[in-house]
TrEMBL record:
Residues 1-27 form the signal peptide. It comes from Blautia faecicola. The keyword Membrane does not apply. Pfam families: PG_binding_1 (PF01471). Residues 46-104 form the Peptidoglycan binding-like domain. It comes from the Bacteria. The lineage of its organism: Bacteria, Bacillati, Bacillota, Clostridia, Lachnospirales. Keywords: Signal. This is Peptidoglycan binding-like domain-containing protein.
Length: 155
């Protein structure tokens, strides 16, 4: 009986470790989000990047809109939009969204207050469309959502 329990616990632990390695962690702040690029990305994070690009400037917006909108795919439109954003904010231009790019994206947002468990943000950028473009779902666990024809999870 002890061996069966031990074996079951080992299998359960292995399953949890596998899940942790496959599912991206919800980061409290954007600079802790994983790097996203054409060679490796999670659609949920890319939707956040695309939403930020749509709301940053007319230049970054056109790359996303011309590529079909916020779709979670890190294709040429997203890569070029990230490059345009990186150039505009003085970062090295590589087309990947790593820690420095996430940090600059976060700096383009300003808080508009808290409603229930939501921290709401609007763009603090040269160009911004109406409404919220990002929100932190819960101030305690730091999950983010972006808005593009409805709220979607980031991360």
């Amino acid at each position: 009986m002890k061996n069966k329990i031990k074996k079951l616990l080992t299998i359960m632990a292995a399953g949890v470790m596998l899940l942790i390695s496959v599912v991206p962690a919800s980061a409290q702040e954007m600079q802790n989000f994983p790097t996203q690029s054409k060679s490796g990305y999670y659609a949920s994070y890319v939707r956040g990047i695309q939403t930020m690009l749509v709301n940053y400037s007319t230049s970054t917006r056109k790359y996303i809109i011309n590529a079909g909108g916020v779709d979670g795919s890190y294709g040429n439109g997203t890569c070029n939009g990230v490059k345009a954003f990186q150039g505009a904010v003085g970062l090295d231009i590589d087309g990947a969204c790593g820690k420095n790019t996430w940090t600059k994206f976060r700096s383009t947002l300003r808080s508009t207050g808290t409603t229930n468990s939501y921290k709401n943000f609007t763009g603090n950028a040269p160009y911004f469309s109406e409404g919220y473009n990002m929100r932190q779902v819960n101030a305690y666990n730091g999950a983010w959502q972006c808005y593009w024809y409805g709220w979607k999870s980031v991360g």
